[in-house]
Q: What sequence folds into this?
């Protein structure tokens, strides 16, 4: 092989450079491609998200591509391998907190009631329920013959034990702060009847019982000597087998599961589940495309957009739906600049929700102004304020900051980086210059109650009643931080009324007033978009069509418990 | 002498670990964010519940007391329980460590197999097209980030050609061949970055040695070229390369988190990052101590290997 001398190398480089130069000249002779001016120009274009946010799935709203209807006869057997984007926070269903908890705990544990696709309460382990005194007490008739994973039958005793457990502060259950102030008392009436008495929150009580597995019915053998649950013994269609935190979770069929298919077959069809934890959306999609896994949650939204516009890759099925899981901005009305209602209103008139949706979710989200999906029974007829930059600028002028104002946005990072970046760009158009203070979740949660910020990015989910999201406005509510520091006795009084109103029609009227007043004064968090939730699967995975975020939606037509592997 | 040397190094290890444990313990508690907030997310717990959980986790005690309690248990092998999963920390780490060691060993092994022979060859054939090609390959290796090379490999071998799995590890009770299939892509991804560094250094050190007088003497004595290379040049040239490989090995023990995420590989890197974000202090402390121990041991082994490569090296 000839040696390359310095002279020969320089000569070669010169020829290469000349060739490149000629190509450039040739390229410049072509007409430049037409540029499309942006329709709603964010100053800073966000990078395309490669991972879908940790979102909760919910109601379908006419997806562009419908999944194929289940074909063939359900086939019993097989192991389904899934990849999901978030692991459990806790093995205790009563401490359900994150998305991973919702996905996995729902396989094993079930509540008395749940919310359906329209957020109306429906029975699950309760066969029926009623209140004869305006919600002050509720009588639940339990479904008979329901077996726990240990083979023992569910009776009123186990229901009482489970609800009493939630009220034990040493357990640390999430709903402790909700049920303790209302003095929840659970009484066994007979083997299959339970009575619950409360001293407040009459309107929202059932929705709190329906918060996924936070009030799930467990067998007392679930708890160890210290009262903590490390392996839940529930009534769900699948029971725990093994787990490696952050790696995988294994479950097998509950052989005595109470629910049967319409054709009388025992459910679930699948023998076992292996759920792998893969935080990166591309990793999950690669796993699905290579058939290493057969079902994934939250594929990359840029890919989903293509599937919606055209079709998914061969061999794959998918569905996009919405749950009540909303991004929102909280404005801090305790200090300048947003103690001035005109500046809060200016923010309201500046936000372009469609552009936010496009920037965050490739247009796949659902634009809204309330923390519910638009098909929810609780989504009220309150028009969304339209973007009006002239009005926003006028408001700033009236407030004496026509030259602009500086403020800080506390960002839950990386979950809401896109919301922060796109809204920062939009607000800069009217002179509201936001400095982004991105914090990891632990740091964010520590900083939030300090009110040392001007706008905060947040999410709200797992809701079947407005009390929970709007309690963010209530200074006296124990469960939530008073996001925004809003202080309005009239609103607090309305919140109390809504919380205690068992009649849905009357409650809706109350909350409509709260929202309208909130929009007028912008103490209300600014709800922007409902997160899109997408599941995808190999096409031989049949029967999955749950509406809810958990993989088993008890009252939906289909769910993982009614899924079968057709191969 | 050697035993005294090793003994002194191991004694230094104990002091190093003590220092690291104090720093890690303190730093984690200085970092803003509360483990209890992470457990409850935006669902702010009742003060009574917060107090009960803090007591259960031992977080209600002063930090020095927490440290002493933790150290007392750690000395007998009890590193506590994960705040989130409630599983023993030792079990969590013990599950993840073999996966990391396997991946790191495979990546280093592949790197050595490729980079050292190529480095020697490019040095011997200096200024040839082979040399130029080798240096270009090294530059590409150094320039392309692991997550890019990883995704390209997945696209080729998993999606297009369906040859290798793109993520995870095989099910339990599967044989070594199954593990090999899952290991290939993450190993190639890691090695793709390492090869460039080792190749360039090997080339550089071999070129230096080839220019020395003893090489001319050896040739003048009539030794064939490959004997000169292997028996004389390589031993001297490899000393800095061994040091580099030792450093890379130490870095990789905790530094494979990107590859672990791309391939959903259950290593201690992702365990540590997840624990840090979740303020799961017991896991962070255990993993940091483990990595520190491994780094010190690797460093000791590298130093000991010098005496094998160069008999002039003695340990005082």
A:
């Amino acid at each position: 092989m000839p040696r390359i001398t310095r002279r020969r190398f320089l000569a070669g480089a010169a020829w290469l450079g000349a060739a490149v130069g000629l190509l450039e000249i040739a390229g410049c002779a072509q007409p430049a491609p037409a540029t499309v001016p942006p329709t709603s120009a964010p100053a800073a274009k966000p990078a395309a998200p490669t991972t879908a946010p940790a979102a909760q799935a919910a109601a379908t709203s006419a997806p562009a591509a419908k999944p194929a209807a289940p074909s063939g006869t359900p086939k019993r057997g097989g192991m389904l391998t899934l990849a999901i984007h978030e692991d459990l926070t806790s093995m205790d269903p009563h401490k359900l907190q994150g998305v991973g908890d919702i996905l996995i705990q729902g396989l094993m544990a079930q509540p008395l009631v749940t919310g359906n696709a329209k957020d109306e309460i429906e029975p699950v382990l309760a066969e029926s329920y009623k209140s004869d005194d305006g919600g002050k007490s509720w009588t639940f008739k339990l479904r008979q013959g329901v077996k726990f994973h240990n083979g023992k039958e569910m009776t009123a005793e186990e229901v009482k034990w489970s609800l009493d457990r939630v009220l034990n502060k040493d357990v640390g259950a999430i709903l402790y702060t909700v049920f303790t102030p209302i003095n929840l008392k659970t009484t066994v009436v007979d083997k299959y009847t339970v009575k619950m008495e409360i001293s407040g929150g009459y309107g929202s009580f059932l929705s709190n019982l329906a918060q996924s597995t936070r009030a799930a019915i467990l067998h007392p053998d679930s708890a160890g000597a210290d009262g903590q649950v490390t392996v839940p013994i529930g009534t769900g269609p699948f029971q725990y087998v093994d787990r490696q935190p952050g790696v995988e979770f294994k479950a097998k069929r509950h052989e005595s599961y109470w629910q049967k298919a319409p054709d009388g077959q025992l459910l679930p069809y699948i023998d076992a589940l292996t759920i792998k934890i893969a935080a990166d959306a591309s990793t999950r999609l690669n796993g699905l495309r290579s058939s290493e896994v057969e079902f994934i949650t939250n594929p990359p939204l840029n890919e989903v957009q293509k599937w919606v516009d055209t079709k998914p890759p061969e061999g794959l099925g998918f569905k996009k739906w919405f749950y009540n899981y909303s991004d929102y901005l909280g404005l801090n009305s305790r200090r300048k600049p947003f103690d001035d209602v005109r500046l809060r209103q200016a923010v309201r008139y500046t936000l372009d929700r469609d552009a936010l949706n496009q920037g965050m979710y490739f247009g796949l989200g659902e634009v809204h102004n309330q923390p519910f999906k638009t098909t929810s029974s609780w989504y009220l007829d309150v028009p969304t304020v339209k973007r009006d930059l002239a009005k926003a600028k006028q408001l700033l002028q009236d407030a004496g900051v026509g030259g602009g104002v500086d403020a800080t946005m506390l960002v839950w990072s990386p979950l809401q980086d896109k919301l922060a970046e796109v809204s920062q760009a939009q607000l800069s158009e009217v002179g509201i210059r936001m400095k982004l203070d991105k914090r990891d979740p632990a740091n964010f949660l520590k900083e939030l109650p300090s009110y040392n910020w001007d706008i905060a990015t947040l999410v709200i989910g797992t809701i079947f009643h407005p009390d929970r999201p709007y309690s963010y406005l209530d200074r006296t509510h124990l469960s939530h931080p008073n996001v925004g520091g809003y202080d309005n006795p009239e609103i607090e009084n309305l919140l109390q009324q809504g919380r205690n109103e068992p009649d849905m029609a009357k409650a809706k009227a109350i909350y409509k007033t709260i929202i309208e007043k909130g929009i007028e004064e912008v103490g209300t968090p600014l709800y922007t978009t409902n997160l899109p939730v997408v599941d995808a699967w190999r096409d031989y995975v049949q029967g999955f069509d749950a509406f809810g975020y958990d993989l088993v939606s008890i009252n939906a037509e289909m769910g993982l418990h009614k899924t079968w592997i057709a191969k | 002498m050697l035993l005294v040397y090793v003994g002194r190094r191991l004694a230094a290890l104990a002091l190093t670990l003590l220092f690291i444990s104090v720093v890690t313990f303190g730093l984690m508690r200085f970092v803003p964010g509360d483990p209890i907030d992470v457990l409850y997310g935006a669902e702010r717990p009742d003060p009574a519940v917060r107090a009960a959980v803090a007591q259960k986790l031992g977080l209600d005690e002063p930090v020095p007391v927490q440290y002493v309690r933790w150290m007392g248990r750690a000395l007998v092998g009890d590193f506590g329980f994960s705040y989130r999963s409630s599983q023993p920390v030792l079990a969590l780490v013990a599950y993840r460590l073999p996966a990391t060691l396997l991946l790191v060993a495979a990546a280093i092994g592949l790197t050595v197999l490729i980079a050292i022979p190529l480095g020697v060859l490019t040095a011997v054939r200096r200024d040839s097209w082979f040399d130029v090609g080798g240096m270009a390959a090294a530059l590409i290796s150094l320039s392309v980030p692991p997550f890019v090379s990883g995704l390209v490999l997945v696209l080729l071998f998993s999606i297009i050609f369906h040859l290798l799995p793109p993520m995870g590890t095989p099910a339990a009770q599967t044989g070594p061949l199954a593990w090999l299939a899952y290991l290939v892509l993450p190993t190639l991804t890691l090695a793709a970055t390492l090869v460039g560094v080792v190749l360039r250094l090997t080339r550089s050190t071999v070129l230096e040695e080839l220019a020395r007088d003893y090489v001319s003497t050896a040739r003048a004595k009539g030794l064939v070229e490959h004997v000169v290379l292997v028996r004389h040049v390589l031993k001297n040239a490899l000393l800095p390369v061994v040091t580099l490989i030792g450093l890379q090995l130490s870095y990789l023990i905790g530094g494979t988190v990107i590859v672990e995420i791309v391939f959903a590989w259950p290593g201690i890197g992702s365990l540590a990052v997840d624990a840090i974000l979740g303020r799961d202090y017991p896991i962070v402390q255990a993993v940091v101590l483990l990595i520190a121990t491994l780094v010190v041991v690797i460093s000791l082994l590298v130093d000991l290997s010098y005496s094998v490569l160069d008999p002039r090296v003695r340990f005082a």
